[in-house]
């Protein structure tokens, strides 16, 4: 197994943004402490190249990130003040998603400790997302003709609006988003298939909807690569999620996705996405369960 991880997650951020980001340090530490993963599975990606980034993002937007020329209003929309370190963080995360996707093509699955920056559009960032790592990875593989058909399964509580917009009208990437109907972003884009969930959706209802959707989705798209965004902001403890999914239900969601793809031998690249429970241990534990489910189902 290959797990993308590096040490520049928190320090580029202002102090008031570091609490939700500390999970990126704690997840691998907990997995190693529990013996759930092997140290040699972790690797540090290099930064993505400009050529790779501009397969997805406009050269003008990339230049603004590179040269630190984002307007104040654009920084406010992203939610972070610009900094060279923050841009570096994003391009390393993007390369991490490319690397784990390449690994998945030959080994079934790869995971990124970060990623899932699905609110980034081709020409601007939103919602704490500067660059769209899954879009960059999908376009990288498509450009090199390593895959013909990609599927994004986005189970973060927030709609993947950036991904939907980037791939609108692109028959080679199918976007599926199951998300809170009344959650951010308040203006939704149109994915190829959206399942908006009412506030208070419980575990049983959530899993039933996903179980019904997955076979139809796979049959409709026939992907040879899946990008799975496994956000844990669906948890009942999440302060922004508005859903009522239990930790066990979140684990069962991951097991359902992984077992389906493993059985059909469809490669899967996984990014963590969001998680904003007030107790960071609830977030870290839920993300760690995603890794444990992958290890068990894929037989590592």
UniProtKB/TrEMBL annotation:
Its keywords, alphabetically, are: Hydrolase
> Ranges for the Histone deacetylase domain?
19-287
Identify the domain of life: Bacteria
A GO term for molecular function: histone deacetylase activity
Q: Provide one Gene Ontology biological process annotation.
A: epigenetic regulation of gene expression
An example of a Pfam family matching this protein is Hist_deacetyl
Q: Does the keyword Hydrolase apply?
A: yes
Signal peptide per UniProt: none
Is Hydrolase among the key words of this record? yes
InterPro entries per UniProt? HDAC_classIV (IPR044150), HDACs (IPR000286), His_deacetylse_dom (IPR023801), His_deacetylse_dom_sf (IPR037138), Ureohydrolase_dom_sf (IPR023696)
* Family, as annotated: Belongs to the histone deacetylase family.
PANTHER family from the UniProt entry = HISTONE DEACETYLASE 12, HISTONE DEACETYLASE HDAC1-RELATED
Entry protein name = Acetoin utilization deacetylase AcuC
């Amino acid at each position: 197994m290959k797990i993308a991880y590096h040490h520049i997650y928190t320090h580029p951020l202002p102090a008031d943004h570091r609490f939700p980001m500390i999970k990126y340090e704690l997840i691998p530490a907990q997995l190693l402490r529990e013996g759930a993963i092997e140290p040699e599975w972790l690797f540090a990606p290099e930064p993505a190249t400009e050529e790779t980034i501009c397969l997805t993002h406009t050269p003008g937007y990339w230049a603004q990130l590179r040269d630190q020329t984002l307007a104040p209003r654009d920084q406010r929309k992203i939610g972070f003040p610009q900094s060279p370190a923050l841009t570096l963080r994003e391009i390393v995360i993007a390369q991490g998603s490319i690397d784990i996707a390449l690994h998945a093509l030959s080994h079934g699955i790869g995971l990124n400790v970060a990623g899932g920056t699905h609110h980034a559009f081709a020409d601007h960032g939103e919602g704490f997302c500067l660059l769209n790592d899954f879009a960059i990875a999908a376009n990288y593989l498509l450009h090199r003709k390593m895959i013909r058909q990609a599927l994004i399964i986005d189970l973060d509580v927030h709609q993947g609006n950036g991904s939907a917009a980037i791939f609108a009208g692109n028959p080679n990437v199918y976007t599926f988003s199951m998300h809170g109907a009344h959650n951010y972003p308040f203006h939704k884009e149109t994915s190829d298939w959206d399942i908006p969930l009412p506030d208070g959706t419980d575990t049983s209802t959530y899993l039933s909807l996903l179980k019904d959707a997955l076979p139809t989705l796979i049959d409709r798209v026939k992907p040879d690569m899946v990008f799975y965004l496994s956000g844990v902001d669906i948890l009942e403890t999440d302060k922004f999620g508005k859903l009522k999914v239990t930790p066990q239900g979140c684990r069962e969601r991951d097991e359902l996705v992984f077992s389906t793809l493993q059985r059909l031998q469809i490669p899967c690249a996984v990014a963590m996405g969001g998680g904003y429970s007030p107790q960071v241990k609830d977030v870290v534990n839920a993300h760690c369960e995603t890794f444990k489910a992958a290890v068990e189902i894929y037989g590592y």
